[in-house]
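Quick illustration, no need to memorize.
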Amino acid sequence: MSSIPTLPGISSQMVNTPRLQIHVLSRGPAGGIPVLFVHGNNSSSTYWEETMLALPAGFRGIAPDLRGYGDTEFIPIDATRGCGDWVDDLLGLMDSLGVNRFHIAGHSLGGSVVWAVLAAAPARLLSVTLAAPGSPYGFGGTKDVDGTPSWPDFAGSGAGLVSAEFAQREGEGDRGEENPQSAPRVIMNAYYWKPPFRSAREEELLSGLLSIKVRPDNHPGDKVVSANWPGVGPGLLGPNNALSPKYLGDTVARIIGASPKPPILWVRGANDQIVSDMSLFEIGTLGKLGAIPNWPGDEIYPPQPMIGQTRRVLESYANAGGRFTELVLDGCGHTPYLEKPEEFNAAFHALITE
């Protein structure tokens, strides 16, 4: 049923939920302890296959394609709800599968979704694992560890900053390496993990990257003109706009105030170029490096301190009665569960079996 070949032991199915039909990869007994895996942007459920196969006996891995990706039914994402559409989709999926409480793990954008699930439904979570998660303050548009906006209209966040050529090549299913600055395969191997790492399943992972729905109401999504540098702000549709801090609401306050507070594991690569305090995909960093002209300077628009923001929120979570563990993996980029599976799984399994 999956449009991407799966590893032996991985099952594929379409699940009818109250909101939409969701494509799910799974592994393990139907009555096993459930673990929900949430993939990142320009990605799909196939990225979690090895991690699901490595789960301890008695666990059930559940990895859906998010709305807008993979083989899940397409319905546009209302970005003004932040990650709310995905949260409701995932909770509806677990309801349809008859699962009340579960462990959850999210990568990159999937980590941003997991923050929102934690804010919305903490009582359903047995534990939380964040693998190179997006900042709880969103992607772009903020300038300090407390998530203060760089501009009142959140210019510099949202879909307007996505490379149009990269998105076009995704939509064309381009698997080549020519013009490497926009080639999906080259971007994946240069930034998703730390070179010289190459996955044995490179073709399947590239297919997962290319599975994002490239259309005006999804990827890259719409944008608005801003009088503030860099001249564009977030629109209303699609995943890239949903990650804007403009639509964050009170998510951070609800994370810190969550009751109960499931334990959190935060795993990241020391060499991550996508989620870091100097992300090469964030406009403040690119302005500071001279790649985007007319940068207004560190006082107005510094690089977003993504790691510092995450640590500040987790420390506040701990001070409010929760607990978290931070694991930093050397020689590792943006996808620690694929690049360093032994180290990742050791910490992950320790959390879900405690």
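The mean pLDDT is 98.
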